[in-house]
Queue: 2 jobs
Job 1
Amino acid sequence: MIAEQRIQDAAGTGRPAVEVGNGGRMPRRSSYDFVVAGGGPNGLTIAAYLAKWGFSVCVLEARPEIGGGAENVEPIPGYSVDPHACFFYGRGAPGLEQLELGKYGFRTSPAPGNFIAGPSGAAGGADRSMKMDSIDQFLEMGFDVDSAKLGLEFQQKLKARLPEFLRSLYWTPPYDHRWGVAREEHPSVKIFKEVFPAWDDSMLDMSLYEWIELMGVPDPQKCGMMINAWGNGPHPCWKGMAIPAFGVGELMSYVDGMPVTPVGGMHALAHAMARCAIANGAKIFVNSPVSEVLVEDGQAYGVRVDDNSALQEKTIRANLGVILNMHVKQLPELVTRGSFTPDFIQKIDNLSLKGGSLFVTNFVVNEFPRFAAVPEIDGRPVTSTVLNADTPRLLELMRDVHSFRTHPTDPDHFAGVWYICHGAHDRSRVRGGNGNYVLTLNLQVPAPEDHRDGPDAVNRAKDEIVATLKAQLREYAPNMTEDKFVATFVNTPRDSEIRNMAFVGGNWMGMRESEQEWGQNKPLPELARYRTPVDGLYLCHQTSHPGGLVLMAVPYNLMHILHEDYEAVSKTTPDWWYPSPWHITDKEGAR
Amino acid sequence: MPQVEFPTQSETDIVVIGAGPNGLIAAAYLTAAGFEVTVVERRYEIGGGLATEEILFPHHYANTHASYHFMVDYLPPISDFHLEGEGLRFHKPHGQMGAVVGDDYVYLTNKLEDSRDYLARFGLDQADVFGNLVQRFTKIVEDILAPATYLPPDPPVDLIEALGRTQVGEDMLEVSEQSALELLDSYPLADSIKATLLYMACQWGVMPTESGMGFIVPLLLTRGMEKACIYGGSHRLASALARVILQRGGLIIDNAEVTEITTEDGRANGVVLEDGQAITARVGVLSSLDPKTTFVKLMDPAAVPAEVAQAAEGWAFDKWSLLSVFFALDRKPTFKANDANGMIGLPDPFMTLLGFDSTDDVVSFLTGIERGEITKVAGHFTCESAFDPFLSQKQGEHVAFFQMPAPYDFDWEGEQDRIVAEVIALLDTHFEGFAASVLDTVVENPKTIEQRLPNMVRGSIKHGDYNPLQMGYNRPNTECSSTKTPIEGLYLCGASVFPGGMVIGGPGYNAARMVCADTETKFPFDYPLNVKRYLATYFPEGKE
């Protein structure tokens, strides 16, 4: 029914009807309203938005499978592992309801517990998923009385406005730097100022670390917040990033403090996005690497796919625009030569790929870890625990990674190792039926391009790192002796880079999220509104604001921009669309 | 109210259990016929045996299950939905089989005259015998077996009467009565050629000496020389079918294990999923699972007629399964040239057969496998990435597998390492520096096949044994072989129903037609031309 509707819609608007309905053929010359290069979460989401909006859309993915970092693999039978992203941070995304992902099978599973375990030997820890609604809880965690009072008031005010705060921070297109909007006038800062009882404008210059020190947050809570920020975006020590680095920690507790994962893993989310796009008429082709974005007279008019692609047509034309779900660093090599000025290419070259990246170890184990210091839920371990979480050790690790540009070798520096076991509370992960489970241990290491000893250094040290991670798990869960490990699958940042061409440099975040490379400066001030110097060519990747984490934020924000740029978009605004209330159009901003 | 998560209660016309090839084919046709269809799949990925996965982790993909596609020239959904071209392309290598048997090398292609040229080295008479055999078998397949795949089976009496109308039909009846070995023995073929053909006919689970299975020989020999791979992996076929379903408003829900098929007043009316979600089916439920799982495990015993339950209990799973050893290699394997048997300069065949000495050897090997013994390591090898560059994401590196019939009841834990070492040694004998080129190895044995794809109970790649009692009108039993079951609203659409497995699509196609017939809904496509011709020839007065 939808397909027939689409034919009619296309007929009504005078746009070419791309094959839909009862077995139409690919037209001799393939053209679409929008061509999306890259089938990661951002590419799939923008395709779903545009297709549901009524446009003909084609997604071209290089790999044999869509989903990009939202992937699951089953390297041994019955056990689905997450080599990359593994928690669902996007519950605040307007796209969830606008694209009706639930209709396409999307379901979430609670991932209870988010425990922080201090250094081995030290008793106790902190449960980050606690409600934090009484002063006693703060005192129990080691806050002093004044800090506890402040913390409680902040939590209470924040709770009431958390969705608003996060949507202003993530699901709002960044403002153009030329408008000169003062930092404190940005919507997320305005809201934060209203909920934080002891606000002082100097906090805008602070790092997360400085700010939580000032607030008197004790370890291991402090270390947990820092780990969360580092693992998911802005480094906790980067100046001027306190609010975004704090915000990233709140994404997971969007609804009720309970972290969730998509039932079956992150790839299920990619499936829902893709199915929404396809049901609305989009075409998705895998094994179809885009080798060039075609530009004529400064206007993008299509793409060329690799000669090996199974598509008959090697040139796919875009009537309205080309959307790149690709790393910003891929722009110069992909777009027809001569499309950019040398200084612009230089600026892209200068973008830093430094920053941590995750060494992901998936183990198949034949027994749950029995943590001495972490409570269990229904006789099973909590889903997520940070091990060896202690601020001094974490700072040592950060120095290893950022300053010494190497991975840790001293076991003491394996700080903030993130233990995750989705199968503990989501049966869809463990189908093998012989009592085994999958668990994950994540460790921060340098992005390969930044590693002192070359991009393969971490790969060469795989075995040692895995052995140390196992030993560390054993310190917290002594039952995890060697015989409990059935199989090991490691995805290093370098592997990610080989497996997935858009993880340029192997950096999980795409690129550094420092103040100079964030918000209205991300990835460059002139690219922040998702436009590029080439007309009709847009960026839709985690290297644009607000970055990664499968938030469906980049595509939502990009829709605002396309709404401004194309009459065909603004004139056909559907009733299900609502923009960010903080969005400022270029016309408004320029005034 | 927009849906943020899939509702715990939902309603649809038809629920299809299992998103394997047949479930998807049935769903595609039913959405095209105008039904609202929801496909529920237990795994995290659709496709069932159409699986292309990164099991050689990281960055090497393999077709973990179906890799050789025998029936792409006939599969109705490919032409009905114009699937080919839309990111789905088949590649049919010219060299189809290269068999090292003893000191001989039997090289077969998808062009008869090329095969005969290579076989003439065994004597001009051999090329002629082979030519006659292929011509005879091709007629049987083209006129009868291929079209009959996409029609419900007939009771033996009716079938004998119908086939009696032509000479090819009479021939087909004669062939059917024999065993594969008897049939091949009736040709004066050199032993190494016979061994090759016997392996091709029996490798997927037919005993060479089993009478009444002779029809499998024409089918698997002629189609075995027309094998195709799917560019970008077998999973592309599943994706293409899924696209058809989604474009027509159908839903596919993965990570959704069915724990119950519900009935009301003797009518199947929906399913319940493991997390308690209920999907109501207004028109019916199609199960692509085997009869034991469908009727015994998922249904209230009171709702299942005694004879159906009894037949389901007696269902025999495949007599053997497969052992597959997948390799990531740092180079493309090169056959060690052997001038003596003339294999120099021949392009890599799609399938290479290794490890057998004679026809007797093939028979005694398969007899051993049926008994649960692995008497030697012998089987077929394919370097998949030589035909499909997308399977290796790292340039220059390759993906290959060795596969052989293997018993389910076997000490895999204790014996697997030894067997894999023997496999590598065998490959090292035939390919330059093979052992040294191995980067990674992943083994799928019959038990792990069952773990990955639990509907392949006991590693049954065809959901149930191929023997005369479970074929044709008897598959899975006389009550259900038309895809319709005695339980109103419940249909079978998987490999356990006529005509069987191997991604031939018959069960899914037939089930969709049956649902349309039962609901007096117009089936949106004509029969393919070869099916029309078959009906006109053998059932001029119409078929029940």
Job 2
Amino acid sequence: MLSLVLVLLLFSSIAYYVGRRRAFSAAGGQIRQLHSLPGYNGLYVALWCGLPALLVLLAWLSLEGAIIDNLVVAALPRDIIEQGAERVTLVLNEIQNVVSGTIYGEPDATVLAAAEHYRQLKSISHGALIGLTLVLPLAAGAYALRKINPRFEARNAVEGVITGLLLTSSTIAVLTTVGIVLSVLFESLRFFQSVPITEFLFGLEWSPQTAIREDQVGSSGAFGAVPLFAGTMLIALIAMLVAVPIGLMSAIYLSEYANVRFRAVAKPLLEILAGVPTVVYGFFAALTVAPFIRDAGGLLGLDVASESALAAGLVMGIMIIPFVSSLSDDVINAVPQAMRDGSYGIGATRSETIKRVIIPAALPGIVGGILLAVSRAIGETMIVVMAAGLAANLTANPLEAVTTVTVQIVTLLVGDQEFDSPKTLAAFALGLVLFVVTLFLNVIALYIVRKYREQYE
Amino acid sequence: METGTFPTQGGRKPLGIIQAGLAKRKAAETRFKTYGIVAIAAGLVFLAILFISIVGNAYTAFQQTQVKLDLYLDPDVIDPEGTRDLDVLSGANYAAIVRSGLQDQFPDVESRRDRRALNALVGRGATYDLRATVMAVPDLVGETLTVWVPADDDVDMLLKGNIDREAAEEGRRLSDQQLAWIDQLESRGRLAKRFNADFFTKGDSREPESAGIRGAVVGSFYTMLVTLLLSFPLGVAAAVYLEEFAPQNRFTDIIEVNINNLAAVPSIVFGLLGLAVFINFFGLPRSVPLVGGLVLTLMTLPTIIIASRATLKAVPPSIREAALGVGASQLQTVVLHVLPLAMPGMLTGAIIGMARALGETAPLLMIGMVAFIVDIPQGILDPATALPVQIFLWADSPERAFVERTSAATLVLLFFLIVMNALAVVLRKRFERRW
């Protein structure tokens, strides 16, 4: 794979020199005769030589596995195929294990034969690929080389290709969004085929352990997500109660009271909090904060769960402080100085100016920032995975353990799982809810912030 | 005060009203200012507690209790036929050699139970180390090696003061007998805390005493390599297109809104995308840095695009006009004149994006980079974990000895992040240009 790419690179660089020489000789040594500089002619040949082959290579490698799998499955004896999709997947796994050399026990003859078939297909595919990466660049390069003559507009052609590549790169963002929506939506729809959407959105009980056998007791699998939504909201609320007052007041102090030197020290220090990875916060919450809160609660005679919502929310709030403070700082600074001066001019004190003039003026921006922070809190994963509970309790008591949407996504998808059970599909349904809610919050917040900025520009 | 010329209101003079309120207003002012100071102090205190708690737990992990043993590499045990064949050397019973080395220190321990208790003092990692040594230099067979081997994590915790000697024997991880042996070894100078090199040179392990972060660091390195190689060129290309070429139309509007929204999508959603698209649809293997890098690329792209566009915007139009004026094409203008000026800013943005990607954990959990992997990955297609995921895994482990290792791994991660951010600051300071 890597060597093929290297071969392509080598071909392309040779093509560059050949193309350049060709342009020189076509012009008879008189560069002024050429429409484009020799380098552009060389680049033209090199692009023709490398690009098509690279695209074919990428397409081949990304589809090869699926095609070979299908061919092998199609060639399996009929009785295996008739046993259903799960059995086929199992057999396919076994075949792949045999091919990669990790054999458990004695595989039976059909598997061994299929493995041999698999190997054959794979080597055919590799051979074809190598042949293609050798022939295609040469053919395409020769084609491009023939087009070179003094009046050939190589520069325009090369620039056209490069602009096309730039355009393609910028569409990746759109493709990502489409990919997210499609992948999450598609799996969610499959989930809603087995669990009705109303039960998912409004059900009060969440216990995703589904039965392995039909007759098993106590593992019916309930997918009512309300406890998760409530838990997420509770933790996000606690986080906001920590982050909004602290973040907003620090922003106000830093922009209205602090002198330049204090601001130059305190602001970057606070922003370190934003650079700490969330897994570190999660560890901090589980190691230091949760035991502290439990012990403190014990002293007061309160019964605090060791994975209380309070601990997770508190630490998440700490994480969000710099987020709130830097967004508020921006909008407070955007309030025109004339408004402050007017307020001071009629004798208001600083705090009165802030409370009665600046905050009302900056309110839309601050609200937008807080909405962004809420979206952040809802989507935050590691802190809650490490510090919040797994059991879905429907409670508003911050001293009890609750679980969140992100925690459940992680628990459902980490570890071994088959891909078709409602259990794993439920994770995608939760992901869909998470995506829609955060998207909604972000769109509103960005809209408010933009409107607000325009107002004072 | 005489202010008779002012009209009066309800029998009181206005200045009097103002004066009466002044003290209150002043108090309100002071109170409000105090709130601000308290808020900043609270933020800084949280920061301090965070760092103190991590450093305080971490520093002990850089030392590990080790036992000095004289190991006789008995040819009858290792290689009875004297072939020095690597297969034979690899399969030999090195545990027995380590055991007998330890029992040489206490020849009077007879019963099986006592022997087992004695053997429990040395970590299992010693066996693997010994095998590696012998395999590297087969000529050592028949000689006596004096080596420091890692002690069991319980012994380590005892020496670091995390196991209470005074606690009742039943509730303690080490028996009275074992404590006595540990004290004897210590008094003979055969038990000491030494620099924990294994922490930096080994992969993950179930045994805390031989667990290291090398595998995770290498896994993170490969993941970041893929991310950087993909996200920087793509991000810069997208930014250049949007800022320099794109016509103002509906399509580019959609792209812009999209990028801004993607920057705020929760990272775990990118993990779901990676699982559904790269693993289930394209059939790429689970747990490999390639897929991790692809997911993190999609996640960091918006950040890099936004930062790169900001730097491109900061390049004054006069540069472009001058280049276009002397006949350069638009692409030549951008590539030869605008990009070089914007490059430092773009690099800064890329480094900050990389730093964020390095600390990211949730999407990697989704694509299976949480597997327990002992071997150091050799490339982007080997199963691997990443440093933050290793922290997550160790934080979950019940052994007390993993707490200090988790903290130490966190310190290493923070160290890398600080270096990257410092680099970004230096770059910015060095190449910042005011037009």
